[in-house]
Write a structure and sequence with these properties.
The chain is mainly alpha-helical. It has three helices and no strands. The chain has one domain.
């Protein structure tokens, strides 16, 4: 039974390391922030979860802690990637070769019944 645990841990280490290397290559090779966030956000979650599973199968003492960590990683990883990408878009970092930009037409407009803020007159 112990050999099966080590075999599962070895396979999980190999696959987790592969995902991590793919994420690093995506971070280096992709052209803009948004593509890089996609590569690192998806791949890092899978890589870290598999490496955590490998640690649990190699030393099966902390299943409960590992399950809590895996759940938090799966929940927080996409949220963090989305927050960073949203902040990048709001800062005005351009998309490289964008086919379409769905957010550009959805600017927040003030309601029609509220007065528009007064524009400052340029000083002469």
């Amino acid at each position: 039974m112990k050999d099966l645990g080590y075999l599962i841990a070895t396979v999980a280490i190999l696959i987790g390391t592969f995902f991590s290397i793919v994420g690093i290559i995506g971070l280096v090779r992709l052209p803009d922030v948004y593509s890089r966030m996609h590569a690192t956000g998806k791949v890092s979650t899978f890589g870290v979860v598999l490496l955590t599973l490998a640690a649990v199968f190699a030393t099966p003492l902390a299943w409960s802690k590992a399950l809590v960590l895996i759940v938090l990683l799966i929940l927080a990883g996409p949220v963090v990637s989305h927050a960073i990408s949203s902040a990048s878009y709001r800062l005005g970092i351009p998309l490289k070769q964008a086919a379409r930009d769905d957010l550009s037409s959805k600017r927040i407009q003030p309601p029609a019944n509220q007065p528009q803020p007064a524009q400052a007159e340029p000083a002469e």
